[in-house]
Specification:
about 90 residues, alpha+beta, Aldehyde Oxidoreductase, domain 3, three-stranded antiparallel sheet, two-stranded antiparallel sheet, 2 helices, 5 strands, about 30% helix, globular
Length: about 90
């Protein structure tokens, strides 16, 4: 990925989080502070993977202890119902 694109990702993510989360996520406060969760990102249809750096930056900016385990790289072809990434960590993140 070109360096100028990578350099802009933190700014894009910050703007998106400010719009979506703002000063806090009220519904997340309903989840216990120590609640752990696991999730998977799964493709719905055949595609070419892109956006890993963006997703990584989202969780970096959110802080916390969510771990992303990627099974594909940007540019990889993906099939319907393929697991792209697994997430594990605090459910409030």
């Amino acid at each position: 990925m070109p360096e100028y694109v990578l350099a802009d990702i933190p700014k894009q993510v910050r703007a998106a989080l400010e719009e979506d989360v703002g000063s806090g996520d009220i519904t997340a406060q309903l989840i216990g502070a120590d609640t752990r969760a696991e999730a998977r990102i799964i493709s719905r249809e055949a595609a070419v993977m892109c956006g890993r750096a963006w997703a990584d930056e989202v969780f970096r900016q959110l802080g916390g202890d969510v771990t992303l385990t990627w099974h594909v790289s940007d540019g990889d072809p993906v099939a319907p119902d393929q697991v792209l990434c697994e997430l594990a960590g605090n459910a409030r993140q």
